[in-house]
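ok new one. same drill as before - structure tokens go in, u give me an amino acid for every spot. 458 of them this time. try not to just spam alanines like last time pls lmao
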């Protein structure tokens, strides 16, 4: 019975690869979850260019990659008024050396003609006190461990004898000069591509086994225990993520690897309870590997599972077990903030009963995959949440040789009628906010079904 909603929750878990909750094990406070490792992306060459482009730009693109993971991040930035962008790789072929040993930056050109071309291209910065060039360096000497560093340049002086340009420069933060910006985190072709076209998505493995005892208490002198005896998720969520200062968190997601979950829950009582139980049960908090670019973006995915459970009646001493599997067909796709035609598969497993018992209970677990991010200092969040608001199990009446109303008369075999119903809802969300927010929440599907309606011999 508890299994059903958990199973539906498992589907969400699989669907979103981003989850929220933390479990209480045997009624103890949940431990602080471990922090998953971040995948650090490093600067890559621009997608195109001849290496001699000295022009100032109001908009430019910057690429970071992690070749081993096949991940690419492409940021497009629109500069604010009175700012112009100058990216070092764009004119690297006409530069002999760059000296960042002092606060100011000295650029030595390979020829007098290249210096003259730079003077013409950069004269704008000296025309007004408010005019500022953002010089973006991406070599170790100027950018250090960050790999890419913007500098604010308020004026430039030239030495035609030495073929040098001296930038009056100070380190800058990206957000200081960004009017607008967006960054797309996705995949690159496994074989590599000089054009760095996006050829696949970022893969997020949500497989996790969270089988464990999850709750223990005493009611009316009766010991009551709930265990997640076989609870696990599997599959991969393939994501194409865009973070934007204007539009917040956006992503398109596709399932693979039989994305889904199996959940079997057992409830054991040592006798009859007369007072109903209602409790919130955090089951698991699972940090997933995130992505990070120094001073630009940080994404920390987390999968959480939490359930609201209630037991309104438990007669005699027994253990009742109920389970379900939930999965999505490979290739199921959806976009945060938009509807989708998704048909989940929900199947019952592991229904059993030991002892003569009457049980009425329900559980409503929620599996949430949450991607909390910061992009140029702005908080953004997106993800999915699968809720099974009603997993209701009724083991109808005490088992007797006369049978039950549900099972009907029999020939001396003790039976209990059982019905297990579940409703599952998958929601997606994305926008501006913190780790606990669910902005622009949209429902992708809402499905109700009867998992079990049968007679058990006890």
């Amino acid at each position: 019975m508890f299994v059903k909603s958990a199973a539906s929750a498992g589907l969400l878990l699989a669907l979103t690869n981003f989850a929220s909750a933390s479990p209480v094990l045997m009624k103890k406070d949940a431990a602080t979850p471990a922090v998953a490792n971040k995948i650090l992306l490093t600067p890559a060459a621009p997608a195109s260019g001849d290496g001699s482009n000295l022009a100032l730009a109001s908009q430019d693109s910057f690429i970071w990659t992690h070749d081993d993971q096949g991940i690419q991040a492409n940021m497009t930035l629109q500069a604010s008024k009175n700012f112009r962008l100058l990216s070092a790789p764009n004119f690297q072929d006409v530069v002999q050396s760059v000296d960042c040993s002092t606060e100011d930056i000295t650029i030595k050109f390979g020829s007098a003609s290249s210096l003259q071309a730079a003077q013409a291209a950069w004269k704008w910065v000296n025309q007004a006190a408010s005019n500022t060039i953002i010089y973006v360096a991406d070599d170790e000497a100027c950018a250090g461990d960050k790999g890419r560093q913007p500098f604010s340049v308020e004026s430039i002086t030239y030495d035609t004898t030495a073929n040098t340009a001296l930038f009056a420069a100070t380190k800058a933060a990206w957000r200081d000069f960004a009017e607008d910006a967006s960054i797309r985190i996705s995949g690159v072709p496994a074989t590599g591509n000089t054009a760095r076209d996006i050829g696949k998505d970022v893969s997020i493995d949500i497989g996790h086994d969270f089988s464990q005892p999850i709750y223990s208490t005493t009611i009316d002198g009766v010991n009551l225990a709930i265990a997640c005896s076989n609870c696990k998720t599997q599959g991969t969520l393939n994501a194409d993520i865009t973070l934007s200062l204007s539009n917040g968190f956006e992503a398109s997601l596709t399932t693979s690897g039989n994305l889904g979950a199996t959940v079997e829950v057992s409830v054991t009582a040592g006798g009859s309870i007369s007072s109903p139980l209602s409790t919130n049960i955090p089951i698991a908090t699972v940090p997933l590997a995130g992505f990070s670019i120094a001073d630009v973006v940080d994404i920390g995915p987390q999968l959480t599972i939490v359930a609201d459970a209630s037991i309104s009646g438990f007669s005699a001493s027994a253990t009742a077990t109920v389970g379900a599997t939930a999965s999505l067909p490979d290739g199921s796709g959806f976009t945060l903030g938009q509807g989708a035609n998704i048909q989940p598969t929900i199947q019952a497993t592991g229904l059993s009963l030991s002892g003569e018992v009457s049980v009425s209970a329900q559980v409503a677990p929620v599996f949430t995959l949450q991607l909390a991010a910061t992009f140029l200092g702005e908080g953004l969040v997106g993800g999915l949440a699968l809720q099974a608001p009603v997993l209701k199990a009724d083991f109808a009446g005490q088992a007797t040789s006369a049978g039950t109303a549900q099972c009907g008369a029999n020939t001396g075999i003790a039976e209990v009628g059982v019905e297990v119903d579940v409703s599952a809802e998958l929601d997606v969300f994305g926008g501006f906010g913190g780790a606990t927010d669910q902005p622009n929440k949209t429902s992708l599907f809402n499905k109700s079904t009867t998992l079990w309606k049968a007679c058990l011999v006890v």
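Helices lie at 2-16, 112-122, 140-143, 174-177. and btw Residues 280 and 308 are 4 Å apart (CA to CA).
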